[in-house]
Design goal:
Layout (H helix, E strand, L loop, with lengths): L2 H27 L4 H20 L3 H18 L7 H22 L9 H11 L4 H4 L22 E8 L5 E8 L14 H12 L25 H12 L9 H26 L6 H27 L5 H24 L1 E3 L1 H4 L2 H12 L2 E7 L4 E3 H22 L3 H6 L5 E11 L2 E8 L6 H10 L5 H5 L3 H5 L23 H10 L3 E7 L3 E9 L5 E8 L2 E6 L3 E5 L6 E4 L2 E6 L3 E7 H6 L11 E5 L2 E5 L1 E8 L13 E6 L5 E5 L1 H10 L1
Parallel strand pairs: 4-6, 11-20, 15-17
Antiparallel strand pairs: 1-2, 3-5, 6-7, 7-9, 8-9, 10-11, 10-18, 12-16, 13-14, 14-15, 16-17, 19-20
Length: 655
């Protein structure tokens, strides 16, 4: 099988499966919505067809049972219930596992037998508990439906030779525990379809169609109806391709072509406007644009350094700058994806976790159309799920506690995305119990995460930040959702690696909100160049709040830590980069100095020089505790290290 076809199938199947899971959650509140039922049915039907083309028979069989169940719900024979949707959601997890097997080049194994029996029992209108009873009789090889169905009346098929010498199938209803007698019930369309699937696989039955006598007016009750006969012909030979008795299917075939032709005509142009592109090609294009940005910077710097101004060369530099900017923006937009892809798994997570915890939670999603870089979407998927689970387990109270506190029994969990200039803000907030900074501090001291001396010097903001330390958890008992002290540190490290920041806003009894601010794109990073004596460094512009002149009289020592007063009443840590990076503190009274205010404190440097778009290159020699985010090439052609403000603040606290 062509690998490109397989990759295309896997991409489309995962997208279909994601949409089906979203619709399943809608179905729970709208069990009779025909559009939702039809959308889910089409998804499983398409998955089954693609799997059949790739000869993944176990996936074909699994999807067929789900398709059969939704076909009956569409026809009004069955109605969706909570246990049924639970089983269907577990079945979609099985399909995901099968797709993973196919991605590894393996033929997916059969799905769990117990879950498969549950789905088939729901399809028959039974309770899974009834269908789970073990069979007492062993059916004949010709009996349809083994296992749990062996002891109940079913369809029996005999392959016989017709007068003309061709082979046909004769189906009848028979009780395995009875003699050779058959009951008088007519064979239903779904039963006969399952006969063919169980005997030969989907659409694989050999031979010609059976030739019973349904066309005669005086047919007996055991005869197959005309509709069943047509379905058999379609399954054996394809719609409209059966030899011999093909008048009815052939008449229906032109109608299908006529109905689909307008859609093809109207939708043809729309389909051509989008193509699937391997993400590695987009990465390569973005890397090349990054190199162009560096060359543009060097060209602009070289023109600016010219002693005698050349108007033609200066105009060429400006036009090059505009062209590179346009190309950069175009390629960046190719990599942008809506946050809906990031949020799509959250309804299922909230539904399963809230049921497990016995809590009533309403999930509110905002900003699903906000676009963000694909790298950010891929990296944040796991951390965002952890934040949601953490809010459900730690933050939101059980219904009884909420009622006692005067709150509604149903809690609200809000996940939102907003544009903030060249950044995206993602919030996860709840109206639960909130965080107690002092309690977090006591837990940290009792678990030896920090010492009491270190804890005495922490501000409330720093106490809350303790939840991001590895191995720290306020949960007394370990559960499936939390308590092991892993997760929140991964959230912060992921956000930091994406050049973002994370913040906590909480109020006791009212709830908590965790905010992540991330760059729109990871390809180009605007930086501020600054000088530290004779050396040049850079800092991401997104991390900078302000540039300040430093008054030595505003620098004070508080509990052994240097602090500086800024903006009138705000007091922040004083971080001397001369001391940290060169082991030579900057003397404010003698050395040239300037302050760069960031979230973690005031960085003391020699001089701020200016901003420039840069392309970050990773440092292979960097360690986990590095002070640098990476390196870039300035317009002068020099290699410049890009500092990590959060890492600088951590080192300052320990020194």
């Amino acid at each position: 099988m062509d690998n490109d076809i397989l990759l295309e199938f896997l991409a489309e199947s995962r997208e279909l499966l994601s949409q089906a899971q979203d619709q399943l959650l809608r179905l729970e509140s709208q069990p009779d919505n025909p559009e939702v039922l039809s959308a889910i049915f089409r998804a499983f039907h398409t998955l089954k067809g693609g799997a059949g083309f790739l000869e993944a028979q176990n996936m074909v069989d699994w999807c067929h049972h789900l398709e059969d169940l939704f076909d009956k719900m569409r026809g009004g024979k069955l109605r969706a219930t909570a246990p049924m949707i639970d089983a269907i959601l577990r079945s979609t997890d099985v399909i995901t596992s099968m797709l993973d097997d196919m991605a590894r080049g393996e033929n997916p194994p059969a799905g769990p037998a117990g879950l498969g029996r549950d789905i088939q029992a729901f399809s028959r209108g039974e309770s899974p508990a009834v269908s789970a009873a073990p069979a007492q009789a062993t059916p004949s090889p010709q009996a349809v439906g083994g296992g749990a169905d062996a002891g109940v009346p079913g369809l029996w098929v005999t392959q016989t030779e017709r007068d003309g010498g061709s082979t046909g199938l004769f189906a009848e209803r028979r009780d395995p525990t009875a003699a050779e007698t058959t009951d008088s019930d007519a064979i239903t369309q779904d039963e006969f379809e399952r006969v063919l699937d169980n005997l030969y696989g989907q659409g694989q039955a050999p031979g010609a169609a059976p030739m019973p006598a349904p066309a005669k007016p005086a047919a007996s009750a055991d005869d197959i109806t005309q509709d069943e006969f047509e379905r058999v012909l379609d399954a054996l030979h394809g719609p409209g391709h059966a030899p011999g008795q093909a008048s009815t299917p052939a008449a229906a075939a032109p109608q299908k072509i006529e109905a689909s032709a307008p859609r093809a005509g109207n939708g043809g142009a729309a389909e051509e406007t989008s193509i699937r592109v391997d993400s590695t090609r987009l990465d390569q294009a973005m890397n090349q644009v990054g190199e162009l940005v560096l060359l543009r910077n060097r060209l602009s710097a070289a023109v600016a350094r010219m002693g005698q101004e050349d108007e033609a060369l200066a105009r060429l530099a400006r036009e090059t700058d505009l062209a590179v900017n346009d190309l950069q923006n175009t390629v960046m937009r190719l990599r942008m994806q809506p946050c809906k892809r990031l949020f799509q798994s959250l309804p299922r997570v909230v539904r399963d976790a809230s049921r497990s915890l016995g809590k009533k939670v309403r999930l509110e999603l905002e900003g699903e159309d906000v676009e963000i870089d694909k790298t950010v979407v891929d990296a944040l998927s796991g951390p965002l799920i952890h934040l949601v689970r953490n809010a459900l387990d730690h933050g939101i109270e059980d219904p009884a506690s909420r009622k006692q506190a005067g709150k509604a029994e149903e809690a609200v969990l809000r996940v939102a995305a907003h544009h903030l200039g060249d950044k995206v803000q993602i919030l996860v907030g709840d109206d639960g119990r909130g965080m107690n900074a002092q309690k977090i501090l006591q837990h940290a001291i009792s678990k030896s995460v920090i010492t009491p001396q270190e804890g005495a010097r922490l501000s409330e903001r720093e106490m809350l930040d303790l939840i991001f330390l590895p191995g720290f958890s306020t949960k007394e008992q370990v559960s499936e959702l939390s308590g092991r002290g892993v997760g929140m540190d991964v959230v912060r490290s992921t956000v930091t690696s994406l050049r973002g920041r994370i913040d906590i806003d909480t109020a006791l009894g009212k709830g908590s909100t965790i905010t992540m601010e991330l760059p729109l794109t990871m390809a180009v990073l605007p930086v501020l160049y600054f000088r530290l004596r004779r050396e040049t460094y850079a800092l991401p512009v997104a991390a900078i709040e302000n540039l300040l002149a430093i008054d030595p009289e505003h620098v004070h020592s508080i509990s052994g830590r240097l602090m500086v007063q800024v903006d009138g009443s705000r007091v922040v840590p004083y971080i001397d980069l001369g001391h940290l990076l060169q082991n030579r503190p900057i003397d404010l009274s003698k050395d040239q100095s300037e302050g760069i205010l960031i979230e973690q404190g005031l960085l003391v440097v020699s001089e701020a020089m200016g901003t420039e778009d840069s392309v970050v290159k990773p440092l292979d020699i960097s360690t986990h505790d590095t002070l640098y985010q990476g390196a870039t090439i300035s317009g002068n052609g020099e290699v410049v290290l890009i500092l990590d403000g959060a890492a600088l603040a951590r080192v300052q606290r320990k020194s």
